[in-house]
Fold this protein.
Amino acid sequence: RARVGDLMLMYRCRPVSAITDVYRLEGNQQRKPAEWRAGECYDAPVRRLMRLKSPITLLRLKEHRLLRTSGFVRGNMQGVRQISDYWPTLFQLIAVDDSVAAKRLAKYSPERMSRM
């Protein structure tokens, strides 16, 4: 469901158990043979925009009053999840901890996204 220009938050499992990086989808998805398992997969060019100075841990997500009820947190960050509805809250968590990341992501702030 992702489109060119969409952001992707990269969650790293153990031992980190945190959202550590922000990527942007740079091109269209294509179905092709998977290099890492039998069968096919979707592949698309992505570019890392930044590594978060203060990764957002799964524990922090589970303790957050709104995010703890989300499907991606209740599912322990497994699978590919649509999290767009929670972007304003996630953006706020990033901005509070990392002013440099907030400036770099200003173009994707919830206020600007609602005008698009």
Q: What stands out?
A: The chain has a mean pLDDT of 92. The first helix runs from residue 58 to 63. The radius of gyration is 15 Å.
